Amino acid sequence: MKTATSQSSKVKDKGETEDVMLKVMGKALTHNHWFHGLMPRDEIEDLLKNEGDFLMRKTEVDRKPRYAISVCRKGVIKHILLSYKSGMWSMRDCKKATLTDLIHTHVNEKIPVMSDGTLLINGVSRPEFYILHEHLDLKKKLGSGAFGEVYVGTWKKSDSETIDVAIKKLKGMMHKKERIEFVKEAKLMRRFDHQNIVKVFGVAPQEEPMMIILEFASGGSLQSKLKNTSDVSNDQLLNYCKDGARGMCYLAGRQVIHRDIAARNCLLGKNDELKISDFGLSVADRSLIKLEKLKSMPVKWLAPETLRKGEFSKKSDVWSFGVLMWEIFTRCKTDPYPGDTNQEAKKK
């Protein structure tokens, strides 16, 4: 029994040592322009266009972190997992103590990384919207959602400029599917530039936890403001509706279906203007999306055709906007259909 416990302890210690080593390695790698961190495979493949273009990314195999090289060879993107054994990193016959040395050796000495002669020629840099963790400073927690927590903080944009931002941080360790959804939301939001849509500055994917860096809406949550402030005028309530309509028109013009328009997903800017936020359920470049099951969906905000057939469109967003207007003018005192269960509301 003692021996089994001792072995179990050794395995645990070894696992913890490897985790620490990988974390330290990740921080060291951020100084290489070709390290892209935890970005999903389909997000980085578009960056590799020419023969020998390559980058390194962190991935997950059997729920364990691994490092991989993605390289372009004759128009095809190849993905190579790197091995770590006895304190050395290796790719084919080349072994080095650090990943940086391993990559530099393959590049400088033109050593193929595959038996077909694939070479690492040009390290592709991280896009501008990849922000380093070390340039972010998290301060007060503002709230939490399905995938993450939101903090107010600062972003060191350059040596001479630091700005206040909202930082959406993922809860705990993230699985591949969640990571893909998280990056998808950030990528979608980066396309937007409108005063009534919360702006995204970038993502921090190099280490755990991954983060999205957003415009800081200093007025806070619309829902909270309406619930806790008794003297908001009818004119201002109408202005919130107009702001929401402008944001909705902007999204519709770009073929985006939000799917979760509600007061809880609206923020207020420094001039008390409404900003649509939270694009975790949104889809782009589609006129219609159909779901078989409406699991975890906000029933009381959904259009009849969505409840009946699982269909989401720009028109179903308009229905949800109507519910949002009801929330605004009732000052968010209750959910829609007060006193009704989801099932009763669905019947109505």
Automatic annotation (TrEMBL):
- Classification via CDD domains: PTKc (cd00192), SH2_Fps_family (cd10361)
**InterPro entries hit by this protein:** Fes/Fps/Fer_SH2, Kinase-like_dom_sf, Non-receptor_tyrosine_kinases, Prot_kinase_dom, Protein_kinase_ATP_BS, Ser-Thr/Tyr_kinase_cat_dom, SH2, SH2_dom_sf
Its Enzyme Commission number? 2.7.10.2
Q: Sorted alphabetically, which Pfam families does this protein's record hold?
A: PK_Tyr_Ser-Thr, SH2
Catalytic reaction(s) noted: L-tyrosyl-[protein] + ATP = O-phospho-L-tyrosyl-[protein] + ADP + H(+)
Where would you find this protein in the cell? Cell membrane; Cytoplasm
- Residues that hold ATP according to the record: 169
Q: Per its record, what are the GO molecular function terms?
A: ATP binding; non-membrane spanning protein tyrosine kinase activity
Domain SH2, chain residue ranges per copy: 34-124
Q: Which SUPFAM superfamilies match?
A: Protein kinase-like (PK-like) (SSF56112), SH2 domain (SSF55550)
Q: Which GO terms describe its cellular component?
A: cytoplasm; plasma membrane
Keywords of this protein's UniProt record, alphabetized?
ATP-binding, Cell membrane, Cytoplasm, Kinase, Membrane, Nucleotide-binding, SH2 domain, Transferase, Tyrosine-protein kinase
UniProt record similarity statement: Belongs to the protein kinase superfamily. Tyr protein kinase family. Fes/fps subfamily.
Q: What is this protein called?
A: Tyrosine-protein kinase
Q: Which organism is it from?
A: Panagrolaimus superbus
